[in-house]
Amino acid sequence: MGETFLQKLRNFIFIFCWLLSASLFLGCAEGRKKKETSPPENPTPNIILLMADDQGWGDMAYNGHPHLKTPNLDAMAVNGAVFERFYSASAVCSPTRGSVMTGRHPLRYGICHANCGHIKPEEITLGEMVKDLGYTSGHFGKWHLGTLTRDIVEANRGGREKYDGDYAPPWDHGFDVSFVTESKVPTWDPMITPPQSSGDVNGALKEGQPFNTSYWTGPGQIAKENLEGDDSRVIMDRAIPFIENAVKTNKPFLSIIWFHTPHLPVLAGDEDRAPYAHLSEDQQHYYGVLSALDKQVGRLRDKLKELGIEENTILFYTSDNGPEGKSVSGRTQGLTKGLKGRKRSLHEGGIRVPGIMEWPGMIKPGTIVDVPCFTSDYYPTIANILGVDLSKNKRPYDGVDMLPIVKGEVKRRTEPLAFDFQGQAALIDNEYKIYSEDNGEHFALYNIESDMGENSNLANEQPKKLKEMVAYWNRWKDSQGMSASGRDY
Predict the structure, then answer these.
(1) Extended strands (E) in 359-423
(2) In whole numbers, what is the pLDDT of the chain averaged over residues?
(3) With pLDDT > 70 as the criterion, what percentage of the chain qualifies?
(4) Under a CB-based contact definition with an 8 Å cutoff, are residues 84 and 370 in contact?
(5) What CA–CA distance (Å, rounded) separates 459 from 211?
(6) How far does the chain reach from its first CA to its final CA, in angstroms?
(7) pLDDT in the model for residue 42
(8) Strands 432-436 and 424-429, how do they pair?
(9) β-strand 46-52 against 253-258: which pairing, if any?
(10) Cross-sheet strand order for the sheet of 424-429
(11) Omega into 39 within 30° of 0, i.e. cis?
């Protein structure tokens, strides 16, 4: 984490403590201390999973970005835990989303890349897990874990005969309420084809005409209203009423909110571009869409406080992979803050992403997590918080419970993070990482704590450590192959 954020935290803690010591109401301070360490009164906390699309590890104001303003995400970070080393389970969107949904590497059930495979019915999703505990569940934004229609040719695969077997909408996988697209949409006026300058616009589509991707709310049901303007707001306009209704009916809820921002095509509204008027047009749009997303995170956090449920709600934030593009150019302005690689790479820049976890009363403000964690950890973390015994499912999980790590009870990770993507392989074991670009035939070894840029290959200097980690990756690969053959079901 950059020194700017650490200094900000130190200043925050100093001022906070000074005010407390100057106050005559010391009893309040003692009461707050007890509150922070006591378990929640309600054994069924609400859960919200937020995810950006293609946001780089450096694309956060709290991480020392030179221009970007993210005051609400900064506030979330100060009030909760920031992960210095949080990783997406893959270097592209669909596989990472599968890891969140199941706690398992997506190659275990056939999601190999974007628009490849789908969530299989034998998998037990987060939605299905919490429904058994009386939760109501909603999914909002980008789905990208299967097609949403067999009847209409739209998006990347929907309605095309050769993809009929990939029909796997959220309403068939444990979600009561849905407002989802199969894949990408523009970040402004999401149903309308934007200018080519926005990036990643199919040349067959005409500017101002339908983008040919819909927001689906159920079988054969397409949203028709309130689809103009900023896409992050369009999504949050559906997520907040779901939360309000859950509270009104006294139901614990799981809300998964997967923004499209800042995935191409990237366009921002004038109001969100204004703070960046001194920068290039491409930067204005890129930073503007992230500011617009940040605004919706603030709106959500304010709503949780208004409803009186913020202390009984766990809020997670991350990105599905690193920034798009081979370099910073055009609308692909995402920063890795010096990390090697970008989206589609298992080098740090492709998989190290923002990570925040907020749970007032359970996670101390200003917590910084040095232990590596990743998106496959969400599932077992939520399961353990809710008292779900995953061993009964009789299948391998790739994540671990992050809460003891966040609370400082666990100082080192016991299970390494394993990666396998498009001919690349990697394994992260606390301070060490191995990386291969030839399907695991040859690996480089890095001390990722002291060499986050992956510049010094230690394979010849530490052959024992290399051999140990390669052996673990091979055992994991064998396990992944067994799962892919269907033996987990």
Answers:
(1) 367-369, 373-374, 417-421
(2) 93
(3) 91
(4) yes
(5) 49
(6) 41
(7) 52
(8) antiparallel
(9) parallel
(10) 417-421, 424-429, 432-436, 444-447
(11) no
